[in-house]
């Protein structure tokens, strides 16, 4: 599927907004880690499955408590983002939030991530999603990431470092001071840093053999980590865009349902066969409209973080 097309004027507004987001960080009024956290939270709200694993910076809270805390924590930042939106009204909110995440990674010393605009605003404001909590083991981590369309283990491991950096518990200073974007998370994991290994989600990366192999790679090779993180962050930020894996997987499920339905009625009488094919086709149509609904629900209106 084609990448969304936006005109030159829109791209020009994106670049102006990029500079304003950079200035937010340079001014030291806002943390780059908070911008990154906001971008993550937007994308994890795409899946209702992710909303059942909500936590605030790894603390043990209920979904309701975490939602309230996240909304309050994002309030000042949301106001600053809103000011940028006023300056560039044609930019959609989801584009602005994901642009903020890309800007944050670069400001923290991480890789430069390509930003593709084209997300659409919606009047639908979904239940606010947060970050995966720290209580998940390997299976639960895979379930959460798979539910939003990220199925590779390297996505989980690479983004875990970003999630850790974005955690509010680590965000004690403004601007880009404090923790930087590098492979130190994996170095500490392999040293079994007692302060780091308090959460099951951290231990899971060591206990699961497939996760562990990526931890070993990233601890030794920061370039490999940056390469994989860049790819994984880009995939995460593009969830909901027409060419994303989430979009493709939903259509693939519909196509599979049609094929199974066609095979199931192949040897039945003609009348029953026609009904069977019609039912299978209905499944595909339903899958398509469900996808459209999910895409709309995943777009973040101005009310989402209020």
UniProtKB/TrEMBL annotation:
Every Plant heme peroxidase family profile domain range: 41-263
Transmembrane parts of this sequence: 274-292
Gene that specifies this protein: LOC107782355
Gene3D superfamilies found in the cross-reference section: 1.10.520.10, Peroxidase, domain 2 (1.10.420.10)
One Gene Ontology CC term in the entry: chloroplast
Protein name listed in UniProt: L-ascorbate peroxidase 3
A Pfam family annotated for this UniProt entry: peroxidase
Family per record: Belongs to the peroxidase family.
Keyword Ribosomal protein: no
Protein's GO biological process: cellular response to oxidative stress; hydrogen peroxide catabolic process; response to reactive oxygen species
InterPro entries xrefs: Ccp1-like, Haem_peroxidase, Haem_peroxidase_sf, Peroxidase_I
An annotated Gene Ontology molecular function: peroxidase activity
The entry's keywords: Membrane, Oxidoreductase, Peroxidase, Transmembrane, Transmembrane helix
